[in-house]
TrEMBL record, chains A, B:
<keyword id="KW-0665">Pyrimidine biosynthesis</keyword>
<dbReference type="GO" id="GO:0004590">
    <property type="term" value="F:orotidine-5'-phosphate decarboxylase activity"/>
</dbReference>
<dbReference type="Pfam" id="PF00215">
    <property type="entry name" value="OMPdecase"/>
</dbReference>
<dbReference type="GO" id="GO:0044205">
    <property type="term" value="P:'de novo' UMP biosynthetic process"/>
</dbReference>
<comment type="similarity">
    <text>Belongs to the OMP decarboxylase family. Type 2 subfamily.</text>
</comment>
<keyword id="KW-0456">Lyase</keyword>
<dbReference type="GO" id="GO:0006207">
    <property type="term" value="P:'de novo' pyrimidine nucleobase biosynthetic process"/>
</dbReference>
<dbReference type="InterPro" id="IPR001754">
    <property type="entry name" value="OMPdeCOase_dom"/>
</dbReference>
<protein>
    <recommendedName>
        <fullName>Orotidine 5'-phosphate decarboxylase</fullName>
        <ecNumber>4.1.1.23</ecNumber>
    </recommendedName>
</protein>
<dbReference type="InterPro" id="IPR011060">
    <property type="entry name" value="RibuloseP-bd_barrel"/>
</dbReference>
<dbReference type="InterPro" id="IPR013785">
    <property type="entry name" value="Aldolase_TIM"/>
</dbReference>
<feature type="domain" description="Orotidine 5'-phosphate decarboxylase">
    <location>
        <begin position="16"/>
        <end position="255"/>
    </location>
</feature>
<feature type="active site" description="Proton donor">
    <location>
        <position position="96"/>
    </location>
</feature>
<keyword id="KW-0210">Decarboxylase</keyword>
<dbReference type="InterPro" id="IPR011995">
    <property type="entry name" value="OMPdecase_type-2"/>
</dbReference>
<comment type="pathway">
    <text>Pyrimidine metabolism; UMP biosynthesis via de novo pathway; UMP from orotate: step 2/2.</text>
</comment>
Length: 270, 270
């Protein structure tokens, strides 16, 4: 999906909500555990219930890998289901990959050819040649970690160099030499508040993928006030608050209600 | 495997060779492609041929993920095979994971419980709470990226802070507050030459996992001269030079010959 299509979807749905498919067998409604593929059964129900209110979905690979080969099948089935039934949604594999060039190229093949997602989260620590192999695909995106939502983001990401530039700022600045805002987005945690102002000074036009609203304590209002740009420029993720709103057979209805509530808040900012 | 057992294996085998199981269906001998599970068939033959000369094996997950669910099964079978038939080898999953706390905890469960490897490579960008979930397992190790072997390692890892400390040095120093040398190792690329001296000033006692000898151009002699400590302190990885020494039915014999040649070089440094 290209940037213009993404912006059109946001305008049409009046939403910049991404539903994080962090599907945990310990948290899904117990009656689904009898299904042949409980992870996929849960995902399908969540997707169908929330697609009206969401413009993106983000499976985090950790939740699939921990179920081994069965988990990978469930991930692949989820991607195919979204592609077939909800082709207007932006699909992000949250895998935080990154390796030497020939190995990153393999990860790129996995996520952009074998399983046809729109975007992959990538860790910047190994530098340019660990990221560029993901950039050779038309309509595919790298979502590079910049300033994450967790407490540990302060350990290295905020370290200032001799000239006062913090590491996340260096990542934002330098990575723009590798790809523009049609091919690259950045992860910025919702918990970072006014830091969005600093980020927008460096990447005014890029989309930001923003996790950390809800369970992790980030504020949608702050994110919008300091992070939004003329194209919206935000994809705000919510996982647990929507997925696990209810553990009975009414879980999908509850998820829809939660997603709709977030969408309505979002509409007010658009 | 604990540190003392690892050191004993190095002394007994007179080797600190790790064979990187970067198994690529495009590069393995064509006759294996008729096997039910060509990845595992190749790995098993390579392992049996080289186990006399190697103290560690390191499957890089990118090579398994790109075959989807079948790839994961091949990875799991490889781990089980090593555990059963070569229990004296140290088993590193090269996955370069790292995420917010609860997600890193899932990755830890995947690699240390579901598939019983000894160590996992982890990326440091997200800081302490992205790494510590991997540290709660007895006899299991985090191998943290410090100074990698690729060109892009210069982009961020060498950035000096206001007080002159480079990012990789900060990672080495700060991560010692999270775990000691019985639980943590570091990735340092063989291509870094005399930088090993700087690294040994900060982590004199830790094991270093050293990729980049061979195809990537690193020198075993430099690595040993500047990186070795009293316990050896090195696990040097070689992948392509051993795995793809020959593409005929004699591939395993050729791999053994290559591994033996490296082991004999290593013995001279021990």
């Amino acid at each position: 999906m290209n940037k213009n299509e993404l912006i059109q979807n946001i305008r049409r749905k009046k939403s910049f909500l991404c539903v994080g498919l962090d599907t945990d067998l310990k948290k899904i409604p117990p009656h689904l555990l009898n299904d042949d593929d409980p992870i996929f059964a849960f995902n399908r129900a969540i997707i169908d219930a929330t697609a009206e209110y969401a413009i993106a979905y983000k499976p985090n690979l950790a939740f699939y890998e921990c179920a081994g080969a069965r988990g990978w099948l469930a991930f692949e089935k989820t991607v195919r289901y979204l592609r077939e039934h909800h082709p207007d949604t932006f699909l992000i594999a949250d895998a935080k990959r990154g390796d030497i060039g020939n190995t990153s190229a393999l990860y790129a093949r996995t996520f952009f050819e074998e399983t046809d997602v729109d975007a992959l989260t990538v860790a910047p620590y190994m530098g340019e040649d660990s990221v560029t192999p993901f950039l050779g695909y038309d309509g595919k995106w790298v979502v590079l970690l910049a300033l994450t939502s967790n407490k540990g983001s302060a350990d290295f990401q905020l370290t200032a160099s001799a000239d006062g530039e913090r590491l996340f700022e260096r990542v934002l600045r330098q990575s723009q030499e590798w790809a523009d805002d049609e091919r690259m987005m950045y992860v910025v945690g919702a918990t970072q508040g006014r830091m969005f102002e600093d980020i927008r000074r460096i990447v005014p036009r890029h989309f930001l993928l923003v996790p950390g609203v809800g369970a992790q304590g980030g504020s949608l209002d702050e994110v919008c006030r300091y992070g939004m740009n003329a194209d919206c420029g935000l994809i705000v993720n919510s996982s647990r608050a929507i997925l696990y709103a209810d553990r009975t057979e009414a879980f999908a209805t509850a998820a829809a209600r939660e997603a709709r509530a977030v969408q309505q808040q979002m509409a007010a900012y658009l």
